[in-house]
């Protein structure tokens, strides 16, 4: 049976896909950057000084965008054995509570990190000459994404679209086929 996807689900899936794409590209750039570091250090005898700063920025982007995608896919870190041991109705309430809590956390993260981005935007990162806010921007983006993804899942659970006996996963394409 093919489920009809709402526009909201499709948009959130595309946002998740963009996060994974940016994280993947950032990982490739990180690997190439360290390859250049090794080449510069051992072949050219001149260590590139900008590599460490770029690596830190890339790791932050990979981490936070990956975390946002993980919330969408329900693959984020969580301790669920107690919740899963509960009867179905209590389990359902606990899952909704967890999703709402994550949504609130995402919103707080979005607001706080947006302030950090604004605060650091006028300062430049040494060696890279880009705004300091670039380093905190992915945390703000991830906060917004966590808010959106968790809110959508909580709404689906409250509306009865998710059974308390089954894992909570987003409606998405079956990419393993």
Automatic annotation (TrEMBL):
It comes from the Bacteria. The keyword Cell inner membrane applies. The chain crosses the membrane at residues 20-44, 50-72, 93-121, 133-150. Keywords: Cell inner membrane, Cell membrane, Membrane, Transmembrane, Transmembrane helix, Transport. InterPro entries: DctQ, TRAP_DctQ. Its main location: membrane. It is a multi-pass membrane protein. It is found in: Cell inner membrane. GO terms for cellular component: plasma membrane. Residues 31-158 form the Tripartite ATP-independent periplasmic transporters DctQ component domain. Pfam families: DctQ. GO terms for biological process: C4-dicarboxylate transport. One of its GO terms (molecular function) is transmembrane transporter activity. Part of the tripartite ATP-independent periplasmic (TRAP) transport system. The complex comprises the extracytoplasmic solute receptor protein and the two transmembrane proteins. Belongs to the TRAP transporter small permease family. This is TRAP transporter small permease protein.
């Amino acid at each position: 049976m093919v489920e009809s996807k709402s526009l909201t689900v499709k948009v959130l899936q595309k946002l998740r896909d963009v996060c994974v794409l940016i994280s993947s590209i950032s990982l490739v750039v990180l690997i190439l950057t360290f390859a250049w570091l090794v080449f510069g250090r051992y072949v050219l005898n001149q260590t590139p000084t900008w590599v460490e700063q770029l690596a830190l920025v890339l790791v932050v982007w990979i981490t936070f965008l990956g975390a946002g995608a993980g919330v969408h896919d329900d693959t984020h870190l969580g301790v669920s054995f107690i919740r899963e041991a509960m009867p179905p109705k209590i389990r359902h309430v606990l899952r909704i509570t967890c999703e709402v809590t994550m949504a609130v956390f995402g919103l707080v993260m979005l607001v706080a990190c947006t302030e950090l981005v604004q605060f650091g935007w006028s300062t430049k990162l040494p060696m890279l000459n880009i705004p300091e806010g670039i380093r905190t921007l992915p945390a703000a983006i991830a906060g917004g994404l966590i808010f959106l993804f968790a809110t959508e899942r909580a709404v689906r659970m409250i509306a009865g679209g998710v059974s308390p006996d089954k894992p909570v996963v987003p409606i998405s394409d079956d990419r393993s086929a």
